[in-house]
Amino acid sequence: MNISRLQPLGWSHFFLQQADTQTFEKLQSNELQVFRISAIHRSVIKGLGSNWNEGEVELLCSESFQPVSEHFCVGDWVIAERAHEHFRIIEVLEAKNQLERLSNQKRQLMAANLDYLFIVTSANSDFNIKRLERYLAMAYESNIEPVIVLNKIDLTDKIDDFLDQIRGLKVHNLVGISMLQPESLLSLKHYLTAGTTIAMVGSSGVGKSSLINALFNQAVGIDAIDQSSSETIDDIQTIGGIREDDDKGKHTTTSRQLLINQQGVLFIDTPGIRELQLLNAQEGIEKTFNDIVHLARQCKFTNCAHQTEPGCKILQALGSGELAQSHWDNYQKLLKEDAFNARAAQGAYAQKQHMKTFSKAINRVQSKHRQDKGK
Ligand SMILES: Nc1nc2c(ncn2[C@@H]2O[C@H](COP(=O)(O)OP(=O)(O)OP(=O)(O)O)[C@@H](O)[C@H]2O)c(=O)[nH]1
Ligand SMILES: [Mg+2]
Ligand SMILES: [Zn+2]
Among 2.60.40.1640, 3.40.50.720, 2.40.50.140, 3.40.1390.10, what is the CATH number of 3-92? Predict the structure, then answer.
């Protein structure tokens, strides 16, 4: 194993220390190898290993890691053993952090081992502060530093209105950019250091892939936006950047992917999520709505339900306008949703376990039946 060759991929002591002596020896002798998962398309899993500059390697994966989306995701580190010309995943290393959400009542892993979460939004009708609150809660819950990226500032003459609304969320990192204003991308420089992993999240069409493309090109220019399409500056401006239709030669991202640019910055591109359902995000929600939590602590009664109680600071703040009704509503909505999703996910898990036991019992009966018949 050549550690120095893995470092550009974000490898660190945190992962190395997870290998026991035996595994470590096998890694030394190259009997085992480590890979960082770079793409998962149905049954095809790809990873980047110490020869990452030669491209991705297709990895095999045993039944015990199925369904894959519940066991690991893009950005995870895995240990794999040689299987003829291929490598088979035998272990998934514990991640520093993981983004997860609820999808079809199931926990779904989205990306792992991130340094920054770029929450991308655009300065047009797609802008939605409640959606940003959701993503922020997700970032805080997973202990990932969020950076709010307001893209397409070329489409508005009211940039400050957008920025002020975002500042209301008390975020540490906020930048306004446009693919049509290459110099605006310099404001992201601070985050773009070698070995750093950045995942992009945000609605479809806000420009996540365009931003990654632009950051792949040293000379950030208009043709870095989308080299494979024939869009011109005029086209982009008239479309207003949000696509009505995805099959007109536009490139909506369909799967998560880990990419590394010439400066050694790692990007995880993700498809826009129509509806982000949080899962187990209570702490993240409290941090996002830290102002509300702070107010509620000052209510007269510790178990105040903020309904009719005397000395309720929340009611007072709502009355005086210090606390916006929509902010309060969204806080309650997210908390309720999170509690509901936690129950749903638990329910789905319990049901799965039940089905497993059930089908095992059936198999037992059937094989006994066959045995009896054979006698
Ligand atoms: N006007 C303007 N258009 C932009 C800008 N950035 C991206 N676009 C356009 O917005 C459209 C969508 O960009 P994408 O990068 O594909 O968006 P995405 O977030 O990756 O979308 P999904 O992959 O569907 O989630 C494209 O037509 C881009 O050319 C910008 O700064 N200004
Ligand atoms: Mg995309
Ligand atoms: Zn109260």
Answer: 2.40.50.140
